[in-house]
Amino acid sequence: MSTSYNENVKVEKLSASHRTIYTDIIIDATPEEVWSVLTDTASYRDWAVFLVDIQGEIKDKTKITVVFQINPRKTKLTTIEHTISVNEGKEFYWAEKGPGGIRDNHHFKVESTGDGKTRFIQSDEIMKGITWLAGGNLSKIYAEGYQAFNRNLKAEVERRFTS
To answer: What residue segments make up the domains of the chain, in order of their start?
Structure first.
């Protein structure tokens, strides 16, 4: 499904306890510029939604603390610690067990479109644990949250780097 933001979203149910979420958006900036904002975790409090804070540096095999505001209409925050893998300038991700025994494979990726723009991809794979029970609802919430984050990332990058 495409929107006026030049973005895509796809949610798939692979089994009762295995779902994938894929989102992307085109940002009018270079991959290096997008990466610089994506890894400027101290600024998340100023522009990010859904994933409202990352405490720690985006460095390979380091621990970060991720703060989510899953429901934007509520003040409740969910905080989870992850050990991340980083392919510098291209991607960072975690693949760990989270609340409810859910296995979470969450990726943030920047790739050149070849025309001076960047495709930012945020994807997730949730499985096991209580995914069989909560997977449908979580997939919908996550897809909406990822799209909101992507749109705000786009706005912040373009604000910083385009006139």
So the answer is: 7-161
Per CATH, the number for 7-161 is: 3.30.530.20
**DSSP conformational letter for 101:** G
Residue pair 7/23 in contact (Cβ under 8 Å)? The answer is yes
Q: What is the DSSP string of 7-76?
A: EEEEEEEEETTEEEEEEEEEESS-HHHHHHHHT-GGGHHHH--SEEEEES---TT-EEEEEE-SSTTS--
What tens digit of pLDDT does each residue of 52-106 get?
999 999 999 999 999 988 877 778 888 889 999 999 999 999 988 777 888 889 9
Residues 48, 40: Cα–Cα separation, whole Å: 11
